[in-house]
Amino acid sequence: MGKTHYFISLLFIIISLKTYSQSIKRIDNSIISTTALDNEIKRLKKLGDVHGLTVSIVTKDSIFFQKAYGSRNLKEKQPLKTSHNFYVASLCKPLFAFVVMKLVDEEKIDLDKPLVEYLENPIYSYEFQHDYENYKDLKTDKRYEKITARMCLSHTTGFPNWRYIGNSGINMEKPLEIEFEPGTFYNYSGEGIQLLQFAVEQITEKRLEELAQEYVFQPLEMDMTSFLWQEKFDSNYAVGHYKKRKTLKRRKRNVEYAAGSMDTTPEDYAKFIQAMLAQKGLSKNTYNEFFEPQIRIESKQQFGKNRLAKTTENNDIELSYALGFGIYKTPYGKAVFKEGHIQGWEHYTVFYPSRNLGIVIMSNSSNGESIFKELVEISLADKWMPWYWENFIPYDYKKY
């Protein structure tokens, strides 16, 4: 009995030491220990004054690193955990894109077939639950008849991000307009994603939540993820923080939006990125198309006044958009990325299929993006991320 106890204790020590000294091989084959990474994340969090942050580094079948830093709720002095529920904003768009690609695999939707051809009536004749989803404004602009699922997923519909956001601010009465010829120019658009959601629900006669559960959440065991608020989130959610440690009340959504109503945990979303690295759930040909660049991005920044300003600054990395994800080139292969951003929440994921490596950064803090550039460089040795285009302005930007 004494020997058994001794060997069990020794085994525990060995396992503990192995976990403590674990290292991560970055995309350039350099090594960083998880201990060093942990210290660097703490340093960056302090310098950026980030209230809450989680970092997950994964391969297709392993989690190298997963840890939470800071607060779930500053006012109540609650520590943050990777099992807490986050609002992910636009980080849900690639997951919706995956659902669409499942339908492509099942030959229920053609990426290049105009969406109007799937509908029984002209799109402007349908009644919607929410005013901003009404497409009556398009009745006199026949260019909407050209819009396809490929255009929606690659953000080339010609729509603005949201119809009510203009150069002069927010105007809820602003009509929906097609600003560019569909298929010709990258312009990030939640409107395009919502249009595709409507078409998908008409084609399948199923709601988005049902499709997501069937194709993603249940197969990947993402038990704490949904496009609709669930009762089980009530005792598990983190709150968003902004400005001088102010907290935001969590919005509990009862209507699913493909462009941004999903709640998940860092642990669950890491499973999705692992599935992308493992290329689970889709045929090889469909995955190849999923990550294939569709259009080069020429804008100086993704949002704001610079979204229309052209530049050649990102030509070296061949910055492009695929289907639900952005793409850029590194000397070590393609990088596939997506961000999520709204007041109180700032997230980023990037993975490298040829290196079988990815990261998920999730922050319940409106200044989280200020450390993303340096965090990705330290964690993965990626110095090519288009941080300025994404408006990930570093906390010490003056030095650049």
Which structural traits does this protein have?
single chain, 400 residues, alpha+beta, Beta-lactamase, nine-stranded antiparallel sheet, two-stranded antiparallel ribbon
Description:
It contains nine helices and 17 strands. It is an alpha+beta fold and 400 residues long. The chain has a nine-stranded antiparallel beta sheet with strand order 5-4-3-17-16-15-14-13-12, with helices on both faces. A two-stranded antiparallel ribbon has the order 1-2. A two-stranded antiparallel ribbon has the order 6-11. Helix 2 packs antiparallel against helix 9 and helix 3 crosses helix 6. The protein is globular and about 60 Å long. It starts with a helix and ends in a 20-residue tail after the last helix.
Q: How many β-strand runs?
A: 17
Q: Report the helical percentage.
A: 25-40%
Q: What is the string of SSEs from the N terminus onward?
A: HEEHEEEEHHEEHHEEEHHEEEEEEH
What structural class should be given to the helix and strand makeup? alpha+beta
CATH architecture: 3-Layer(aba) Sandwich
- Provide the low-confidence segments as ranges: 5-21
